Amino acid sequence: MAHLSYVNVFAKDVVALSGFYQRVFGFEEIEAIRSPIFRGLDTGKSSLGFNALDAYELLHLSEFSDTRGVKFLLNIDVDSQADVDRMVPVALEAGATLVKPPYVTYYNWYQSVLLDPEGNVFRINFMM
């Protein structure tokens, strides 16, 4: 059976961006895989990686390196509606931009939509 092991984000500054997710969500760094162009965080069920832009060339993806616009959506689940409400101000203080304040979706999740400091969209979710 397949499972998702990592989601990797290309980042202008892997140290700063991984630090943002550490501060907001408390994810621990996986120090054993640290490199000058990579940081990995343990999210509990999978991992979140941050690749420097140099990785485009290493992965033979240089022709696909246009990073403008929304290319993906990170969803980070929390344990309660109160956790969503508590974590949004923490994210904003750490440098996030609020796109949509906490609300109940049509599929009955409580969530907020934000941009991280490099403009990547993420949601803080509680599945009610």
Present the secondary structure layout:
Elements: E1 6-11, H1 14-25, E2 28-29, E3 38-42, E4 47-52, H2 55-58, E5 73-77, H3 81-93, E6 97-104, E7 109-115, E8 121-127
Parallel strand pairs: 1-4, 5-8
Antiparallel strand pairs: 2-3, 3-4, 6-7, 7-8
Q: Overview of this structure, please?
A:
This is Glyoxalase. The structure is a single chain. 23% of the residues lie in helices and 36% in strands. With 128 residues, the protein is of the alpha/beta class. It folds into two domains: 1-67, 2,3-Dihydroxybiphenyl 1,2-Dioxygenase, domain 1; 73-127, 2,3-Dihydroxybiphenyl 1,2-Dioxygenase, domain 1, CATH 3.10.180.10. Strands 1-4-3-2 form a four-stranded mixed β-sheet, covered by helices on one side.
Which tags fit this structure?
alpha/beta; 2,3-Dihydroxybiphenyl 1,2-Dioxygenase, domain 1; 2 domains; 4-stranded mixed β-sheet; 3 helices; 23% helix; globular
Strand content: 35-45%
N to C succession of SSEs: EHEEEHEHEEE
Q: Please mark out the parts with pLDDT under 50 across 5 or more consecutive residues, or reply none.
A: none
- Rounded Rg: 15 Å
CA(first)-CA(last) distance? 28 Å
CATH superfamily of the largest domain: 2,3-Dihydroxybiphenyl 1,2-Dioxygenase, domain 1
The percent range for helix content is: 10-25%
